[in-house]
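hey so i finally got around to running both of the ones u sent me last week. sorry it took forever, my laptop kept dying halfway thru and i had to restart like 3 times lol. anyway pasting them below in the order u listed, first the sequence line then the structure token line for each. didnt double check formatting much so if smth looks off just lmk and ill redo it

first one:
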Amino acid sequence: MGSMAGGTPTIQIPRWIQLVGLPVLALIAILLAGKVFHAVFLFLVAGLVALLLDPLVRALERLRIPRGFSIAIVYLSFATALVIAAIAIGVIVVDQSQSAANRIDSYLTNEHGQTSQTGFEQDVDRLQHWLDTHHLETVDIRKQGQDFAESIKGKDVEKYTSKAIDFLSGAALSIFQLVFSLVLILVVSIYMLLDMNRLKQAVDRRFPPKPGTPGLVVSMEKAVAGYVRGQVLLSLIIGASAGVGLWLLGTIGLVEGADTYAVLFGAWVAVTELIPYLGPWLGAIPAVTYALVVDPFSALWVTLLFLGIHQIEGHIVVPNVMGSALRLHPLLVIFGLLAGGELYGLPGILVALPLLAVMRAIYEFFSERVELEEWKEGVVPVEVDVEDTRPIQPVPPEEPPEARVAP
């Protein structure tokens, strides 16, 4: 073991361990992780949760609240907020879905005016007239639109909506299959939080931080907290932008009814924004689908709105918000997301970026404390017995004693 100029101890890894030991250990770790990958993943998630909540627990400890009670307060607060949010979102989704179904049913089936046409048929006629006046009369969408409307008229839209809601309710029941994993993550993270102070002290004794710099565990906590803050802020910005944009489109009449469901669509966009790369596209689907059903022309305005939001997100919001949170090269971020999805699907994608942030903190901490023994040029770090192949020289006969007497 050596030491840096500032007195921080360093570990020097010998050349023979670099050559043999590290590859063997890496291979063993990969094989073991493949056998118990689910358990490893759950412990990783529990560790990220513990690193995220530990600053809150420390803040309560500074108020002279015992650590055990602090952990209980933090978890109960999060559980209460999660239940309230789930109930509120569920009520809004069911209510707005039923209202939207009624509007779609009226748009497709209710006849009004002297022409005895539905709103859908009138919009199809207007679109066909626009095509005919712009030398696109070969495109005949009236027949396809009428066939689609007739097929809808013979069916009960509300009935199918109720079936969809029942399907979602049944799908929600399958979530209980994840209860064991969630409870295990909860229990493991609580144990980690209870022992976090001892872990910090042990790591700081073994690897003392530089004066004025945080220790390894605190650096990991800051990495996770920074990522979460950046991601939540990004979701709020994009969700609010989508909601305000749809409200404006509905208010000025470009997308009928969009102002009524702006809050619902904005909340959906904010939630899907938590999913890296796929989230922005998933967030636009409900709003664009609604616009297509209400008025095909209005879908163009909704599409342009989301394209503009995504351009602002990619060029302004993400570089400024997430750049300081991750401090990772974009190629490494993309690789981490692909690897996470390949290994564990959507949960792997959600865990990939905070895990990369923690790995960056670990690398920065140990890059100053671990050094590899230098390899001298032309020297092989393996002892080799070399046989002496030189011919044996004959030993001259020893002279008699009288011959060595001086004259």
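and the second one:
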Amino acid sequence: MAVERDRPYAQFNFLVDLGTGSTSGPQAGFRECSEIGMTVDVIEYRNGNEKENAVRKLTGLAHYSNVTLKRGVIGSLDLWDWIDQVRNGDQSAFRTVTIQLMSEDHTQVAETWKLLRARPVRHVTGPFNAQCSDVAVAYDRLELE
């Protein structure tokens, strides 16, 4: 539910549920989420015998962009098990992924997005970088359709 505020919410205060019901632990530890968006086609139509020389605009199909989640390398196998399930052709592998934006003090949910019938369509690990002393030098990217 949207709440009127004078200032925007700070970044990086969100929880991700990959359809398991859990928003804690390493399987929900994403460090970045791409834009969540949709577009609706507009269909222009005009009868050939209409007196007005303009088109009508009708609502067409809705399209939803893929969502990319990025995280550091971790030891949790929950995500890999889901990817493997989809890769092996399991038609029941769709999940409802929930992304919740939290308030600054992490006590209230400010906004919620639900990705219905989501499945991983792309998984990338890397690039690997041994030139720095960061905690994780490779990142998993998961693209959901």
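quick thing i noticed on the 2nd:
The chain has a mean pLDDT of 79.
anyway thats it, ttyl
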